[in-house]
Write a structure and sequence with these properties.
The complex is a heterodimer of chains A (about 300) and B (about 500). Chain A is mainly alpha-helical and about 300 residues long. Chain A has helices at about 5-10, 10-40, 50-65, 70-90, 100-115, 140-145, 150-170, 170-180, 180-185, 190-215, 230-240, 245-265, 275-280, 280-290; strands spanning about 130, 145-150. Chain A has a two-stranded antiparallel ribbon. Chain A is globular, with a radius of gyration of 20 Å. Chain B is about 35% helix and about 25% strand. Chain B contains 17 helices and 22 strands. Classes of the chains: A mainly alpha (about 300), B alpha/beta (about 500). The interface of A and B includes residues 168, 169, 187, 294 and 298 of A.
Chain lengths: ~300, ~500
């Protein structure tokens, strides 16, 4: 985006948009894949926003302290496991509602992240190394757009892995069985609560890795407003993606692109409506929700027991 | 594995103070088709759940092939070759038939080799008694096909001692005969033993070798079916002679169309059309019955009539005036509904019995005064009257309605609908589903009395006997449309059965 937009014109916007989509999609991707795994087991984790922030803060802090961004990612994943285990334990209590527990987890996760993150506001922690795919091009715009975080490839690979998990492994069939009809799953001898516990815990861990991207990628700072509600939007994105990991990947790219719209247009010199364009992911969420949800039919692909005890 | 005899000797099972099974013995011989007969709540399911390891008997012994065994889990029961097909399907709806069968297979490896699994399944199906499409999704299957997949699943798991819990409650008579006939064949070839839990005499007489009858948790009789008659079975099952219905159908001569449904169309939950251009008329003093296998649009039809679901086109009129289900119109048209599963569809489960009984009238005088204040005393008095007249038990107005048994919820809601004003139109769906015969008789009497007072009643029921006993005219509903009309006097059961099964 620091390129010469005059030289490339509309192409510049397109390239900046594509690069922005790849970059911006990473948190959406990890959170939505984590949520997809969780919801396939029939549980909802609305607390992903809190998990995302805790992941972002932890990754930043550990990277800053140890000097290794990869240790930061690992620490974020571990914190995600803990938060996920907490949500799983909470929502399996007899009188706890998934949604209420999720909202509590948003507040808890973000509060905890803000509290421990206080001393890390300001410095710049070591960032994740980028993979340079654009060295063949002389254009700095293309080079910049093709400097891609390794987490993007990890997330994209993960989407396909989850697809294989759900269709070609016995674990995947068990997760789907539990999410679709827990009574039937019990009759088949599947330990419903254990399966759900694992799905929720691993799902939250994935979301926390998405948080690591927020702080370990340019500009690489921790601030309280860093997620901007991406954790919540990613939960909505799973519904739009009809609980399919591969469609989650596509939807994450779409949301990433929408998020890059404002900055890309700005690079072209269009400064008016900057905040309006920045609101495009939120608008997109609303439009997609209205377009894909209808009171007259239940959603195809939705796990049958989603959110029920 | 060959079949083996299964015996339950003097088994007792208590839940708290309630004795569900009291000193019952069952002798299910190897290679036989045995029936376990009884009314709802007679203890049939509890007894077999003790065999299957879901419950532990408090007293008594279980023997398989003569050897005493302790079965503490369904997995252990499976080890003995025992398998059970439940009343409620245990298939995962969003999965294909193949996925469901593979998921049930013990020792499934982590990575599924679909090619070899499908080859195994195809080989298994080649020898199976009935066929299903392996790649069909369970949600798209009819109840009969699901039942077949359930049985196939048990056979795939090499079950040799098969327990069927009321398997035919969701099937048409023709489907039931087909499934039971094929299993009968397997029993005769000594490939299988079947224990059939049922309350249908016809199935016992047609397919079973022996029968054990339970009544209120106790053994009421046992014997070879060839030595027994349906009336003898009924005596054992009911214990007391059934009271003859003392409300007769009065001949009503005034014939004024009251409820008219014209070209009604509505979509189901899946977005597909569930009610397809349905038209009918119900006159005063008439009960019009709608028969059909569940899942043919009856639920959606009732929901549209009750205002729970929007119609895509069509209109409903009462006495010539367009009817839309607002409180004002319901009151003006004296229009009442008794939907199926009243706890879910017609009541606020956590609210008290009294408040639920007052739901139709709480916003009109004398129950509401000064336009907004409820008169608790008037509500309390009204609900006590309804509770007494309809014999709701326990008679405690303040108790949350979801703590009542199904039959008593049904009585309370029926009481509300029939006591909140003189009924002009009543729509009832499966009003007796899952109730014991006393409650059934009571509800039937109420419906007939309401009819005799000149109300128009639309009765949607999966129980053909109920319709034949109560209705003046009967329609058969299949795939969202009325496909056949008859009267109880001229009804041809095999024709009705074919129409219900979709062979028009």
């Amino acid at each position: 985006m620091q390129s010469q937009p005059e030289a490339l014109g509309a192409w510049g916007v397109a390239i900046a948009l594509a690069g922005g989509a790849v970059r911006g999609s990473i948190p959406y991707m990890f959170v939505s894949l984590g949520e997809c795994l969780t919801e396939k087991s029939g549980k909802i984790n609305l607390g992903m926003e809190g998990v995302l922030l805790m992941g972002a803060m932890t990754a930043f802090a550990i990277s800053d302290i140890t000097g290794s961004p990869w240790l930061g990612v690992a620490a974020a994943a571990a914190v995600g496991l803990l938060l996920g285990a907490m949500h799983a334990w909470l929502t399996q209590q007899s009188s706890v509602n998934d949604v209420a527990a999720g909202i509590a987890m948003i507040l808890f996760g973000s509060g905890l992240a803000f509290f421990f993150g206080k001393r890390f506001v300001a410095p710049m922690a070591p960032q994740l190394p980028l993979i340079n795919l654009g060295s063949w091009s002389g254009s700095p715009a293309i080079q910049s757009a093709l400097r891609i975080s390794p987490l993007f490839f990890a997330g994209a690979g993960l989407a396909f892995c989850l697809h294989v998990l759900f269709t070609r492994t016995s674990w995947g069939l068990k997760i789907r069985a539990v999410g679709d009809d827990p009574q039937a799953a019990r009759a088949l001898g599947i330990p419903v609560n254990t399966v759900r516990f694992l799905a929720i815990t691993l799902g939250a861990s994935l979301a926390a890795v998405g948080g690591a991207h927020l702080t370990l990628y340019f500009p690489g700072i921790w601030s309280e407003g860093i997620s901007g509600g991406q954790g919540l939007m990613a939960v909505a994105l799973v519904i739009f993606a009809r609980w399919s990991p591969r469609r989650c990947l596509a939807a994450a790219l779409l949301f990433g692109g929408a998020q890059a719209l404002g900055p890309s247009l700005q690079s072209l010199g269009v400064n008016g409506y900057y905040y309006l364009f920045n609101a495009s992911p939120y608008l997109l969420t609303l439009v997609l929700m209205i377009a894909t949800c209808s009171p007259n039919r239940s959603l195809a692909g939705m796990p049958g027991a989603l959110g029920k005890k | 594995m060959r079949t083996a005899s299964v015996e339950a000797l003097r088994v007792t099972k208590r839940f708290g103070n309630f004795t569900a099974v009291d000193d019952v013995s069952l002798h299910w011989k190897a290679g036989s088709f045995h029936a376990l007969l009884g009314e709802n709540g007679a203890g049939k399911s509890t007894l077999v759940k003790c065999l299957m390891g879901f419950h532990q008997a408090d007293a008594g012994e279980i023997r398989i092939a003569g050897e005493p065994v302790r079965i503490t889990s369904p997995q252990e029961a499976r080890g003995h070759g025992l398998g059970m097909v439940f009343q409620h399907f245990t298939l995962i709806p969003s999965m294909t038939v193949a996925e469901n069968l593979v998921l049930a297979r013990p020792g499934l490896p982590l990575i599924i080799n679909w090619k070899s699994e499908l080859a195994r399944l195809t080989e298994f199906l080649r020898k199976a008694p009935f066929q299903v499409g392996l790649q069909d999704r369970v949600t798209n299957l009819s109840a009969g096909q699901k039942q077949k997949v359930e049985i196939l699943k048990e056979l795939y798991l090499e079950t040799r001692l098969l327990i069927l819990d009321e398997p035919t409650s969701v099937l048409t008579p023709a489907e039931a005969d087909e499934v039971l006939g094929l299993l009968r064949g397997m029993v005769e070839r000594d490939e299988l033993s079947v224990l059939l839990i049922t309350h249908k005499f016809r199935e016992v007489m047609a397919f079973c070798d022996e029968v054990t009858v339970l009544r209120r948790g106790r053994l009421a009789g046992t014997g070879q079916t060839r030595d027994l008659t349906p009336s003898r079975l009924a005596e054992m099952m009911m214990g007391e002679a059934r009271v003859e219905r003392h409300v007769a159908k009065m001949e009503i001569t005034r014939r004024r169309p009251l409820l008219k449904i014209h070209n009604l169309r509505a979509k189901g939950d899946n977005g597909l059309e569930a009610v397809r251009g349905l038209s009918l008329t119900v006159h005063d003093g008439e009960i019009v019955g709608i028969a059909g296998v569940s899942g043919n649009g009856q639920r959606e039809l009732v929901e549209v009539i009750a205002g729970q679901r929007g119609a895509t086109t069509g209109e409903i009129t009462v006495d010539g005036a367009i009817h839309s289900p607002t409180r004002e119109q319901l009151r003006a048209h004296r229009f009442f509904t008794l939907p199926e599963e009243p706890l879910r569809n017609a009541s606020a489960p956590r609210m008290s019995v009294a408040d639920n009984i007052a739901l139709r009238v709480f916003d009109v005088p004398p129950f509401q005064r000064a336009g907004c204040l409820l008169d608790r005393q008037a509500i309390d008095k009204f609900s006590r009257e309804v509770i007494e007249r309809f014999d709701v038990r326990p008679p405690i107005p303040g108790r949350p309605i979801d703590q009542l048994s199904g039959g008593n919820v049904q009585r309370a809601i029926l009481g509300r609908e029939l006591s909140s004003g003189e009924v002009q139109v009543l729509v009832a769906a499966n009003p007796c589903f899952g109730l014991d015969f006393k409650a059934v008789d009571f509800i039937h009497e109420c419906l007939l009395q309401t009819r005799n007072r000149g109300a128009a009643i639309l009765l949607i029921s999966e129980d053909l006997d109920e319709l034949l006993a109560l209705a003046d005219r009967i329609f058969v509903m299949s795939e969202g449309a009325l496909v056949h009309e008859t009267t109880p006097q001229s009804a041809d059961l095999s024709l009705i059965g074919r129409q219900m099964a979709g062979h028009h």
